[in-house]
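pasting for ref
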Amino acid sequence: MSSPDQPVVLTCAQPTGQLHLGNYFGAVRNWTTFLDSHACYFGIVDQHAITLPYVPAELRQSCYKTLALYIACGLEPEKCNLFLQSHVTGHTELAWILACLCPLGQLERMTQFKDKAARQEEGGAGFIGSGLLYYPVLMAADILLYNADVVPVGEDQRQHVELTRDLAMKFNATYSDTFKIPKVEIPKQAARIKSLQDPTRKMSKSDPNQGGVIYLLDEPNIVTKKIKSAVTDSGSEVRASEDKPGITNLLHIMSASTGRSIEDLEQEFAGSQYGVFKAAVADAVVEMLTPIQERYKAIADDKKYLEGVFKSGADAAQKRAFKMLSKVNRKAGFIERAR
């Protein structure tokens, strides 16, 4: 699958059970570019998923669905290690050690913690679990446990990976040189896919208007309806500019779906009405999604196959995790258990 001298890429995401165009263009498709050049570890972080209220049965189903979607999107199990966070010993153990090095104030200043805590209070959740506060420390452990060279993440995770770098340097300074300082890679495309109904905001599963979100498993007629109903701008010119966020968003979606440049698309649709352009965008997205949906349907109900992928991925991840955890425990002063 990979050679020992290959650099390691590690990235993880929560098991939402659904992926939308923003997830695909901004993250998952980018991950496939590492398959032949890096040792790839792609984790589904189910332990992170319990920091907010959830339903256990739905979490389990979401893990299977997320795995099937990853494979359908091109993360071939033969070329990478796809694993569940809870299947690998070491994530929470390393998180505790890192937490003891992490200043509380640094966690309280995290933008995502403040935003999520505020939403919890507004929603009347009753309390804010400490897991939400320590989420970035567990994320740091996810990364450092594999001594990753590269961490591809979205712009919204930059602050968390910077904390990871800080904790790696602090551990190295406190004990001795142990962790690589991971490089953050943020795809340029990540921030460009916006809501179809509010093109000033990024496309999000939590969007109250689901007409603004295109999911990878949306049926062709649903995709077409959402795109044809997308908010556009005054005038009728198909061009990308700050004063035309709706059309700019659709141009980015079509460009990402077809591989064609924005300039090329602007030239093709010069003089066209918005309706003609939207129909072309819908056709391009449907064509791009078709093989993903076909692959997903072929494996989604094969639980034996999916569990086999989880097992092989966890086995490979565990070997690497145990090596790092053993080194960390020894440097932290823990006595290795006699075997």
